[in-house]
Amino acid sequence: MNLLVAALCGILYFIGTSRLGYGLSQATGSPIFYGLILGLVYGEVEKGLIIGATIQLIYIGIIFTGGNMPADQSLAGIIAIPIALQTGMNVEVAVGLSVPFGILGIFIDQLRRISNSYWVSKAEKYAQVMDTRKIFHCAITYPTITIFLLTFTPVFVITLFGANAVTSIMNILPQGIIDGFSVAGGILPALGFAIIIMVIGKREIMPYFFIGFFLVAYLKVDVMAAAAFGFCVAALTMFNSIKQKQKEVN
Questions:
Q1: CB neighbours (10 Å) of residue 216?
Q2: Comparing C-alpha atoms, which of 188, 5, 13, 184 is closest to residue 82?
Q3: What is the DSSP annotation of 7-76?
Q4: What is the pTM for the complete model shown?
Q5: Cα–Cα–Cα angle for 115, 120, 123, rounded to 5 degrees
Q6: Which tens digit of pLDDT belongs to each residue from 86-116?
Q7: Are 105 and 76 in contact, with CB atoms under 8 Å apart?
């Protein structure tokens, strides 16, 4: 079972970070997607989705400035979720555990970029002699094989041996450190929200954000109702904006 799960995690991480399908990888590389798949595997779909969604909240406002990866939500999710489901770890501790792996993912991404630059230089040499077959391999085949090895191998190894190692470490660690993980895991999703507010927040639309927050926090509006209210508010805002522009034109 552990061997199959480790292989599955390695393949999922490869698919989510290999850029195959471009925009599709934004979905297949998200922690909430991993939470769904691994939740089905372990028979704990609800917990898997909760952990995945909470991890994703940390990275919701992160921007890839200049294409550079500030943190890897995919690696954070694909490592923390199966370990949490195997060990019965609570959500907050799992989220705290995921963050270092998100940083580790930056180094894997840098190795991917370095390897790609090598294949580009090789393709340029083949372009000089018009060898289109080898150019194709340098553009598609070789980079894909390299990325598979870079992404599959560490995730497979960590997932295969990680649960037992984490369990042993958790048994040794003082309760204060474990509580620290829980506190950090509770704060980090709020930090993710704060980042996205800084990115997209505008003075004229901030009241809508706080209205939604208080609806959920104090009136206990569920997710579907909040989404319906948000859609209606967005539609009204869009219609009013269109009317205003038409008046300005006329």
A1: 15
A2: 5
A3: HHHHHHHHHHHS-TTTTHHHHHTSHHHHHHHHHHHHT-HHHHHHHHHHHHHHTTT---GGG--S--HHHH
A4: 0.67
A5: 130
A6: 888 888 778 877 877 887 787 888 888 888 8
A7: yes
